[in-house]
Design goal:
Dna Ligase, domain 1; 4 domains; five-stranded parallel sheet; 14 helices; 27 strands; globular
Amino acid sequence: MTSLIIKITSLPTRIFRSIFPQKAGTELEENTILVKDNNNEDVIMSTPEKLRGLSDIYRFFRKNTTPIYFVSPTAYNILGLGQWIQGFKYITHFDSFDGGHFRVTNPEQNTEREFQSMEDMVNYLLSHKESVDLFQRNGGKGKILTVMFDEKTEEIAKQLGVDIALPPAELRTRLDSKIVTTQLANEAGVASAPNIVDVKASSYQELSALAAESKLGEKLVVQTPYGDSGKTTYFISNEADWDKVADKVVGETLKVMKYINHIPGTVEAVATRCGTMVGPLQTDITGYQELTPYKGGWCGNDIFPEILQGAQRDKIISMVKAMGDKLYETGYRGTFCFDYLVDTDDGEVYLGEINPRISGASPLTNLVTSKYGGIPLMLFHLLEFMDVDFEIDVDEIQKRWSDFGSWTQLVLKHTTDEVRSITKAPQSGIWRMLDDGNITFVRNSIDWNNVSDGQDAFYIRVYNAGDYAYLGADMGILVARGRMQTDDRQLLPRAHQWVRAINAEFEYKALDELEIPYIPTDNVRKMI
């Protein structure tokens, strides 16, 4: 009966086209009904020429046929994105889920390989036979996402026939310079803390003279162009401070800033053809000795709706939008991380730095924007690199995550300056804090959305039994509901409890006399 109705209703159209035939190569009009032969139930609507609004975007990714792969040491940065995207896979070095995540492929490392950087690890994963086989099983094409990559990665991707869905490595490297970032911010009208850039100093006296000329004071923050997690940021107030870091700054082009009492924070945004979309603001968790051996080093974030209300909040958002639009002018598109500083003495807001990449802020950003806003921010990044046109109201969508629940992520680094072999490690999944301060494993999980209340937390393991622990190693990450840090930047008691309890789940043994461990270089110690 259905077939008969279709034939009758389509008869006028067939008569019309017999008289006025469609020109060769002309596209079917939008919303034309297509019917497959011998399958009366398979009636589908054609894809709109342009995606307009969230319903179209949901449908586009739900029916996506382009394989998308996240290649990185761990799956953490955009964990959970596969719930929104058909054909999404992870290719990772660390098996955080003991083979229990159906979207994760862990290429087997047959020989001990000494990676020189995170980019080196990504290149290894991308060109591994298991990865190549995965690409071929999925049609040999696709899009690649990653945190870090270089020109060699681009060459490998080109040979494999897959596209890197990120701005070019050369552009990312140029924008990653703290000096270039500051210069671009000046052009965009985005203020940085009082500073001088593109200078060199061979002695403390020379540094002091430069600072005095620009009225930066005696307490200085000195940065080399590249580096993350606070590893290349130095606090210098006297000659003794200089002597400790002189070998790291002499000969380098420097950014020298006035030291300000401040609250550090970050916000992830996406620069698109429709404007810059700004995610929810986060405060940084930095420098705690329980979490990181690096002074001022990043070790997590709090995210809660009360952060910096009113004029300060509005100013940060306008600064991020201006910076994103400026980046788009340079040819950069997609996700970036904007670190901000709020001066606690006068309330002024400044740009700290830009991270032109998927970053450590991405997990909480995508968690909040998807759970409370109905769509992960990362989807708008992907739209820029997919073969589709779109038109969205950036401000209207951004309002969707104006209110949300509080969450925290803690990055647990190995803080002991001793290389040891790990004999036991906590498994990934949901853990629960007991009344006595101990924790118990509740269940396996691949999703932090399953954290039910303030007593539960999701832990994702990085290093496992059989690996080596060393100073600065990212051992694992904890995601929990609620805050872990006070407004005046002190760890809450519950944070201390969780850090102690997770660390207590590790067991180690001393190295054998002839054992030669592989310890990654500084360039690859950061795993997320």
